[in-house]
Every structure is written in C-alpha cells, then in structure tokens.
Amino acid sequence: MHDYAIEGKGHEKILFWIAFISITLTPFVNLGLNPIIVIVRDYVGIAYTLTSLALFSIFFGIFNKFIWRFATKILKVPNLNGVWNCKGHSYNTQTKAKFQLESTIKIKQTWNKIAIYQKTDDSDSHSVSILGL
C-alpha cells in the first residue's frame, strides 16, 4: 500500500490526540500491571514507556483500520474502499484511433494508505509499495 496525502487534513492532530490519550491512560494501565512493575523496580521508566508505546500502537491500529471510516466527513478523507466498475475512452491524435476501455478497479484503503488494483479484459494493473503490506 502507498501512503497518500490530502492537503490540510490534519493528520498531525489525529496523531497528537492518539498519543495524548495513550500517555494519559498509561498510569491507569500500569496500576493493573503494578505487581509486574514492582518486580522490576529499576525499570519503572521503561515500563511506562513501553505501556505508552503499546497503547499508542493499539489505538492507532484501531483508528487506522476502522474508526476513520465512521468519521470521514469530519476528517474530510474520502472512503474509496470497494470495487468500482469503470468505462472510459481514449483518442490517439496521431492515428485518429479511438479506444474503448472497461475495467474493474478494486481499492483497499486505510486512513493513511491506499492500494489500487485494476483489471481489464486485456491486462491487470496494480500499485504496490516496497514498504507496503
């Protein structure tokens, strides 16, 4: 999947709030983990850091896969997931040839990544990122 950007849509604000919630909840989660943390007294700072990172990862994963879909109007990010049937035409100005095209496009999208697969009668096309999933 490729990263994508939509101008001025405040991705930083979402990341800030996910981090803020994670850091705020860390002491409460660590209260439940207190028996484990007491055993490793010298590593309390590391325990808090790891808890914050774990909470951020969980909250970001849930937001990235699911929650953003319910807030597309607020986030102003279109949800393009699904299968789309397309019809198009092309015109070669040099040969004056006209081409008709029918294809099916499948889009897989999360809040911050997108993959597009196109299938026509003649060929398949898709976008793949080296770092993608």
Descriptors for this entry?
133 residues; five-stranded antiparallel sheet; elongated; disordered C terminus
Could you please describe the fold and organization of this structure?
With 133 residues, the chain is of the alpha+beta class. It is built from four helices and five strands, in the order βααααββββ. The model is unreliable at 129-133 (pLDDT under 50). The protein is elongated. It has two domains: 6-75, no CATH class; 82-126. The longest helix is centred in the first third of the chain and has 22 residues, at 11-32. A hairpin with a 3-residue loop joins β3 (98-109) and β4. The protein has helices spanning 11-32, 34-39, 44-65, 72-75; strands spanning 2-3, 82-91, 98-109, 113-120, 124-126. 41% of the residues lie in helices and 26% in strands. Strands 1, 2, 3, 4 and 5 form a five-stranded antiparallel β-sheet that branches.
Summarize the entry for a quick read.
By secondary structure, the chain is of the alpha+beta class.
Topology (elements, then pairings):
Layout: E1 2-3, H1 11-32, H2 34-39, H3 44-65, H4 72-75, E2 82-91, E3 98-109, E4 113-120, E5 124-126
Antiparallel strand pairs: 1-4, 2-3, 3-4, 4-5
Helix pairs in contact: 1-3
